[in-house]
Design brief:
69 residues, alpha+beta, two-stranded antiparallel sheet, 5 strands
Length: 69
């Protein structure tokens, strides 16, 4: 699966990052593992899915830099 890095918490390294999957437009999020996703109040995470935690700034920065003109 080929991906393009859109924006991250840091410019290099293994920080929280937002990627686009080439050819599909889907997004991948690299973030901090939420160990017990089922215990997150207000969610019902099904088998085969997971939850990651990322700084809100990642999404805000992407919107500012790529969607707002």
């Amino acid at each position: 699966m080929a991906v393009t890095r859109l924006v991250g918490e840091c410019e290099k390294g293994t920080c929280a990052t937002l990627y686009r999957v080439e050819g599909s437009g889907d997004l991948l999020v690299q973030g901090y593992d939420v160990e017990n996703a089922g215990a997150v109040v207000g969610t019902d995470i099904p088998v085969g899915e997971t939850v990651v935690r990322i700084p809100a700034e990642i999404i805000e920065r992407y919107v500012r830099e790529h969607l707002v003109r």
